[in-house]
């Protein structure tokens, strides 16, 4: 029971890993793989003629499900962060191209007007890009809080079932 609990603690601590790369997702997948190995070992150890699922089976299965949900959340957060970064890079490229066009227009026609709206548009685009990153961060924090609450409730209910 202790190794699986440590895997759960490692999963909670994985929220401290920087989410920009795939390190966090790889780490969580490794935890899920380790728990699935424990489930296979447990399947061989437990009697197959039992009428009820043993508490240790429920314990392993619920932790497996919790880490699976945590992986889905990590994928969602990475997707939102990538969407914000992609949008920011596309918009930055467009803004730079617009500014280059304005400069070339100035060189060709001295009477042309400056693109006064470019800084305002760039600020709006940066806010939109930061919006996706902010949404991803909010989802990550809310999920962490709900995840910890779920773990505490599950372990306390399992403790009460075990002691009775």
UniProtKB/TrEMBL annotation:
Keywords: Membrane, Transmembrane, Transmembrane helix. GO terms for molecular function: monoatomic ion channel activity; transmembrane signaling receptor activity. The chain crosses the membrane at residues 26-46, 58-80, 141-162. Residues 2-91 form the Neurotransmitter-gated ion-channel transmembrane domain. The keyword Ribonucleoprotein does not apply. The keyword Transmembrane helix applies. One of its GO terms (cellular component) is membrane. Pfam families: Neur_chan_memb. It comes from the Eukaryota. This is Neurotransmitter-gated ion-channel transmembrane domain-containing protein.
């Amino acid at each position: 029971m202790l190794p699986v609990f440590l895997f759960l603690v490692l999963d909670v601590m994985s929220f401290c890993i920087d989410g920009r790369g795939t390190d966090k997702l790889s780490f969580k997948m490794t935890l899920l793989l380790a728990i699935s190995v424990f489930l296979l070992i447990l399947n061989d150890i437990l009697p197959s003629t039992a009428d009820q699922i043993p508490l240790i089976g429920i314990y392993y299965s619920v932790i497996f499900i919790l880490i699976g949900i945590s992986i889905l959340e990590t994928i969602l957060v990475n997707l939102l962060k990538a969407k914000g970064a992609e949008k920011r890079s596309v918009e930055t490229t467009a803004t730079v191209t617009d500014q280059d066009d304005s400069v070339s227009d100035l060189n060709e026609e001295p009477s042309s007007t400056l693109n006064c709206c470019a800084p305002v548009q760039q600020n709006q685009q940066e806010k939109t890009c930061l919006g996706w990153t902010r949404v991803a961060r909010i989802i990550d924090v809310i999920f962490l809080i709900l995840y910890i609450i779920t773990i505490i409730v599950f372990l306390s209910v399992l403790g009460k079932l075990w002691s009775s």
